[in-house]
Amino acid sequence: MAQGSALQRLSGWGRHPVELCRVFRPEKRSDLAALLCSGALSHYIARGLGRSYGDAALNAAGGVISFARLNRFLSFDSESGVLECEAGVSLSEILDFCLPRGLVPAVVPG
């Protein structure tokens, strides 16, 4: 087993298909960089929160990098309304932050 990984059955929101994947869960961006430079596997796919209906990030032949632990807000510019956050931040968390400030993301899923 590659260091820092676990075998896990993954699917999207619709629960089809399901694949057994080697999942990595870095907690810091430096952990992510170290993983990618380690050569542990030849290829990876990025995975968000796994709530996609039909195009879930699955990669049975390689690694899956879960961004669930990389879920921090990094910066916010109140003048421009630009919020910088890590990939594991959910849309719900973004809305909870933005709406009280009178901001609405330009694009939201339907």
Architecture overview:
By secondary structure, this protein is of the alpha/beta class. 16% of the residues lie in helices and 26% in strands. It is built from 2 helices and 6 strands; from the N terminus they run E-E-H-E-E-E-E-H. The protein has helices at 29-38, 91-98; strands at residues 5-10, 19-24, 44-47, 63-66, 73-77, 82-85. Strands 1-2-4-3 form a 4-stranded mixed beta sheet, with no helix packed on it. The chain has a two-stranded antiparallel sheet with strand order 5-6. The longest helix is centred in the N-terminal third of the chain and has 10 residues, at 29-38. The chain is flat. The model has no long low-confidence stretch (mean pLDDT 90).
Structural topology:
Blueprint: E1 5-10, E2 19-24, H1 29-38, E3 44-47, E4 63-66, E5 73-77, E6 82-85, H2 91-98
Parallel strand pairs: 2-4, 3-4
Antiparallel strand pairs: 1-2, 5-6
Features:
two-stranded antiparallel ribbon; 16% helix; 26% strand
Widest sheet, order of strands: 1-2-4-3
**C-alpha geometry:** flat
The share of residues in extended strands comes to 25-35%
Main sheet characteristics:
4 strands, mixed
What's the helix count? 2
What level of helicity do the residues show?
10-25%
Distance between the termini: 39 Å
In round numbers, the mean pLDDT is: 90
Radius of gyration: 16 Å
Computed structural class: alpha/beta
Query: Helix and strand succession?
Result: EEHEEEEH
Oligomerization status of the protein chains: single chain
The total strand number stands at: 6
**Low-confidence sequence ranges:** none
Give a brief rundown of this model.
With 110 residues, this protein is an alpha/beta fold.
